[in-house]
C-alpha cells in the first residue's frame, strides 16, 4: 500500500508577512528555534538552495536534508533535486522514521497529494525560502507558524499570501512577542471528519 505523506510548512513570520532580511531571520527567538528542532527532528526537511546556504553549519543534524535547486546537483549531507515535485516524491518513497509523537501535527488519515513507495506515513517539513513556500503551499495541509509580533520595515523576503478562508486554527500558544499557531487546511479537516463520522 502506498505511504501517504503529511506535508507541513514550518515558518516564522511577522505580521507584515516578513520572513527574512539579507539571508537571515529579522529576529532571534530561542523558543522558536527550539520548536523548529522539536518538530522536525527525525523527519525530512525540504529547503531551497538559498535557505541551505543560510544555515550556519550546513545540513541540519538528525534530519533528512533535501534541497531543491536547478543549478546545484550536490551539497554536503543533502539530497538535491531539480524540482519540488521530485523532492516530495523522493521523501514519500523512503519515509523517515518518526522518533517522537508530533501531537498537534498528527498525520492525516487520508493520502495527500503526494504518494510514494511502501512504508509508514512520511512526515515532510518545508522550511523555506519564499519561493519554495509559494510552490509548496498547494500541497500542504498543515502550517506550523510562529507569528512574530513585529513589523520589520527592512525585510526583503516575505511569506506568500494565504487565503484565511481555506485554513482553520487548531492550536494557539501565546507568548510575549510571538505566538505558536497550528493551521490545518479545511479540506483536510472535512475529509478526516467524514471518515471518522
Q: What layout of secondary structure does this protein have?
A:
Elements: E1 2-14, E2 18-20, H1 30-40, E3 44-48, H2 49-54, E4 64-68, E5 79-81, H3 84-93, E6 115-118, E7 122-126, H4 130-136, E8 142-148, E9 157-158, E10 167-175, E11 178-185, H5 186-196
Parallel strand pairs: 1-7, 1-8, 3-4, 3-7, 4-5
Antiparallel strand pairs: 1-6, 2-9, 8-11, 10-11
Q: Supply Rg.
A: 16 Å
Number of domains: 1
Percent strand equals: 25-35%
Sheet with the most strands, sense and barrel status: 9 strands, mixed
Let me know the CATH homologous superfamily.
Dihydrofolate Reductase, subunit A
Task: Walk me through the structure.
The protein has about 200 residues and is an alpha/beta fold. It has one domain (about 1-195): Dihydrofolate Reductase, subunit A (3-Layer(aba) Sandwich), CATH 3.40.430. About 25% of the residues lie in helices and about 30% in strands. The protein contains five helices and eleven strands; from the N terminus they run E-E-H-E-H-E-E-H-E-E-H-E-E-E-E-H. The strands form two sheets. Strands 1, 3, 4, 5, 6, 7, 8, 10 and 11 form a nine-stranded mixed β-sheet that branches. A hairpin with a 2-residue loop joins strand 10 (about 165-175) and strand 11 (about 180-185). It is globular, with a radius of gyration of 16 Å. The protein starts with a strand and ends with a helix. Mean pLDDT is about 85; it is low at about 95-120.
Amino acid at each position: 500500500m502506498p505511504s501517504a505523506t503529511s506535508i507541513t510548512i514550518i515558518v516564522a513570520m511577522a505580521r507584515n508577512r516578513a520572513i527574512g532580511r539579507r539571508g537571515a531571520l529579522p529576529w532571534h527567538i530561542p523558543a522558536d528555534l527550539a520548536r523548529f528542532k522539536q518538530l522536525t527532528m527525525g523527519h525530512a526537511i525540504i529547503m531551497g538552495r538559498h535557505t541551505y546556504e543560510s544555515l550556519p553549519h550546513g545540513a541540519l543534524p538528525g534530519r533528512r536534508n533535501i534541497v531543491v535547486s536547478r543549478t546545484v546537483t550536490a551539497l554536503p549531507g543533502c539530497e538535491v533535486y531539480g524540482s519540488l515535485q521530485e523532492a516530495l516524491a523522493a521523501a514519500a518513497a523512503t519515509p523517515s522514521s518518526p522518533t517522537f509523537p508530533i501531537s498537534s501535527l498528527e498525520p492525516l488519515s487520508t493520502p495527500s497529494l503526494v504518494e510514494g513507495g511502501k512504508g509508514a506515513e512520511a512526515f515532510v517539513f518545508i522550511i523555506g525560502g519564499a519561493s519554495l513556500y509559494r510552490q509548496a503551499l498547494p500541497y500542504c495541509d498543515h502550517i506550523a507558524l510562529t507569528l512574530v509580533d513585529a513589523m520589520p520595515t527592512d525585510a526583503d523576503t516575505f511569506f506568500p499570501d494565504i487565503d484565511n478562508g481555506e485554513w482553520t486554527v487548531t492550536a494557539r500558544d501565546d507568548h510575549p512577542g510571538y505566538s505558536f499557531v497550528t493551521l490545518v487546511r479545511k479540506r483536510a479537516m472535512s475529509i478526516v471528519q467524514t471518515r471518522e463520522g
